[in-house]
Amino acid sequence: MTSGGPRFIRDLLHEAAQRLQAVHAADDGDDARLQVELLYGLATGLDRARVIAAGSDVASPAAAEAFATLMERRIQHEPLAYILGRREFFGMTFEVGPGCLVPRPETETLVEAALDAVRGHPNARRLVRVADIGTGSGAIALSVAQHAPNAQVFAVDVSSEALQWAGRNMRRFGLQDRVVLLTGDLAEPLSEPVDVLLANLPYVPTEEFEALPAQIREREPRIAVEGGPEGVELIARLAQQLDAHLSPVAAAIFEVGAGQISWVEELVTRALTEAGRTGLDVRHHRDLRGIRRTLEVRVGYPTG
Ligand SMILES: C[S@@+](CC[C@H](N)C(=O)[O-])C[C@H]1O[C@@H](n2cnc3c(N)ncnc32)[C@H](O)[C@@H]1O
Question: pTM for the full model?
Fold first, then answer.
């Protein structure tokens, strides 16, 4: 890409976007043009607006070479967010990299439901205890802590690598006084009942995992994506732990895969009913694509 003498930045980016599109035909995610603009910005220290404005300038050999190196990483399916080292989520910039899942836009649906549940909880004027099971980068836990000053958040993950990213982000946002990071399996590390329990656990069935784009299958942690042969194994296990970890008035909110919501609703409501909980209030929340993405089950909440 650096051969052939001086190049206008506009032409360099156009060619790079076409190449990316061809190679990443099966990868979902960001638009190719946006990606190359961001990568050129990273290579040169310019923000995206200035990259676009500089289109008719000639790329310096050093910039062209640095850009070519970043492009090569992207061509090899390294996720854009890992290369940039960051991803926007719920209006906040999270640091991300190998070892944690890149937060997805559809997960913002869960955060919105979580904030609603925190604000509507009878303890809202005091302290609402929240758990985020499978916290990864801390996207959910930290967004809730940031936007609900009355929330005390326990962020759990079985992966210590993922928790390192969560810790980095927790310090980045200065939320150490209200967020506690815990290592372990599902809800087991929680030492007290919580009022709002959140979980975006892996839910992709093994067979579907094998067909995912390379940038997910080969680069993001398998433990963050693959949920077992049926996809819902971890969610089913967490459902069995719910009663022991939820306070008398509580909400449990799960992100699920497309088409899984009824199945997960059945798992969660059966587990709670068998444990003697009554008056369950079940809600489905759709993501921006209209998919029923988030299941919420409230127990004992005031109505109205
Ligand atoms: C789909 S990712 C979600 C990450 C983050 N919460 C988000 O929404 O972007 C699932 C997370 O669950 C964690 N996980 C997988 N199995 C777990 C288990 N048994 N107990 C706790 N966390 C687990 C993974 O390490 C990963 O960070």
Answer: 0.95
